Amino acid sequence: MLESALISEFSRFYMSNISDHAIDLFSKIVRLKKYKTGDVLINKGTSKFYVIVEGIVASFSKNSQKDREYIRTIHLENYAFTDLFYQINDLKLAHIDLDTKTPEDYYKCLTSCTLLEGDFKDFIDLSASNHEISLLYNKINQTILLQVLKRLDRLSLLDATDRYKILKERIPQIENLIPQYQIASYLNITPVQLSRIRKKMYSE
Amino acid sequence: MLESALISEFSRFYMSNISDHAIDLFSKIVRLKKYKTGDVLINKGTSKFYVIVEGIVASFSKNSQKDREYIRTIHLENYAFTDLFYQINDLKLAHIDLDTKTPEDYYKCLTSCTLLEGDFKDFIDLSASNHEISLLYNKINQTILLQVLKRLDRLSLLDATDRYKILKERIPQIENLIPQYQIASYLNITPVQLSRIRKKMYSE
C-alpha cells in the first residue's frame, strides 16, 4: 500500500525509531489524494488533517472585519497541518490569552499537491490509544512551533529585503506561484515596498 | 508536597482527566523556586523547563548581529516553556526551513515569579515512559502553538493601536513592568510611534 510507505517516510522523518506497527496503524487512517493549484483544503470547522507529500500549501488568515488578509505560513513536503483553532474550547486558550476569537483562516494549495488526508479526530484517538503515535505528535508539534517562532523572529528582527531573500532561497519559484501582493503580505510590507526591493536587488 | 498540588493544577488545566499516578510522577521531577524581577531563566544551551505558577515571564530574541532585540512572547500563569531550539538537530528542522541558525533567545522574569523548575530531559524521558505525560505534552504544545499563531496574526493584521490595546487588556500593569522601548519592540513599532499612540489614546 502506497499510503503505508509514505506514512513511514513522514513518521521516520520526525521519529526515526518509530515501529512498523505504529506506522501500520497510522497509515490506516489516511488516504492519498491529489489537489489542484488554488484548491482550498481546510476551512472553518472542518476536522481534516493533511500531510504534504509533494507541493506547496499556504495558510491564510483574515482580520475580524475580513477586509485584510495575509499569508501566515508557507509549507513544503513533510509538513502536517490541521485547523487547530477548531479545538479552541478544549484547550481553554481563553484563560491564557483573553482573546477567544477563532481567526478566519484557511489553507490553500499554491501548486498542484499530493497529500495524505485523514480525520484529525481519528489521529487524536490513535494518539490516545498508541503511545508511539502520541510521541510522534509531540515531535511534529515541536517542529511546527519552532518554525512559527522563526517566522515571528524574522518579521520582527530582519528588514524586508532579508525576509524576501530567505523566502526566495526557500522557494525559488515563489514569484510564479503567488501574486506579488500576496508575497508582500507574507513579508508584511506593501506591494510598492516589495517592488522597490526587487528593483534594487535585480539592478545590483 | 506543594509541588504535587501545583503540578496537579497545571496538568488538569490542560488535561482534565489525567491520573493521580501521572501527576505524582511529574511532580517528582520538578521543584518550586522563587525568582526576582530581571532574573534570566533560560540562556543558550541550558536544558531546564519551567511552569509559571505566579508572575510574568517574557522571551527575548536577538538578530544574528546581536544589534537588535525584541520581546517575542509574554507569558502568564499556567504557561510552560523551555529552550526548544536547543534540540534543533534532533528535529531536522533544517530540512524543512533551510535556516538552521539557532536564535539568540532567552527568558527573563518581568515581575517576581514563582515557578516550577525541572530538567527538560527528565520530562522527555517521562513522556517516553508514560503515555499520559506524552498526551499532556501534546495539549501543552497545541496551546502554545495557537498562542504564537495568534501573535503572528496580530502583528500582521492589526494596526499598532489595536495591538497595544490587546496587550494592555491582557497585562494591565505592563507600563510599570517593562520600559516603553521594550513595549514598542513587542508591538513591532518604534518608541516614537508608541508615544504617539499613547498620547492619542489618553487624550480621547
TrEMBL record, chains A, B:
Domain of life: Bacteria
Protein name: CRP-like cAMP-binding protein
Species, as recorded: Tenacibaculum skagerrakense
